[in-house]
Specification:
148 residues; mainly beta; five-stranded antiparallel sheet; 10% helix
């Protein structure tokens, strides 16, 4: 892993978090969640969408099923609570918005942990929100910065 503030290098590979893979990957993705959700109709920017959400509290069968589905049932890293929401366009089925909230236990004992100096058990709160728009629109070209 790169250290913060280390030298930058040019690469053609992306090793970070891939939002597109969450929806359209060949492996299991968020649209394959094995837990029923009753959609409601709402509007975002004048577009009718299905709003689906899952509240998965600690110790629930739904949370266990969700984590097992993604192969992440390690007892040490299980979120205490997890909430996932989707807003999907009713006509195009494009994902318009995604929100995930999780309360995650922090491992202070690991040498590489940013929280190793806390000296107490703690829980971190993670919120991830993505709003998607401009589907199938032409975008200006991305110009790579000069690497010297």
């Amino acid at each position: 892993a790169k250290e913060p503030m280390s030298e930058w290098t040019a690469t053609d590979e992306f090793e970070g978090f891939d939002v597109i893979e969450m929806w359209s990957g060949d492996d299991d993705n968020f649209l394959d969640i094995p837990i029923a959700a009753e959609p409601t109709l709402e509007e975002i920017d004048g577009i009718t969408v299905y709003h689906m959400k899952w509240d998965l509290p600690e110790g629930s069968q739904e949370l266990t099923a969700f984590l097992n589905f993604f192969g992440d049932s390690d007892d040490e890293d299980i979120p205490e609570n997890l909430k996932i929401e989707f807003w999907i366009d009713v006509e195009s089925y494009y994902l318009k918005k995604f929100v995930m909230n999780a309360d995650i236990p922090i491992d202070e004992e690991g040498e590489d942990s940013l929280f190793s100096d806390l000296g107490t058990d703690a829980t971190g709160s993670l919120t991830m929100e993505a709003t998607l728009s401009a589907f199938n629109e032409d975008l200006p070209p991305i110009v790579a910065p000069k690497v010297e």
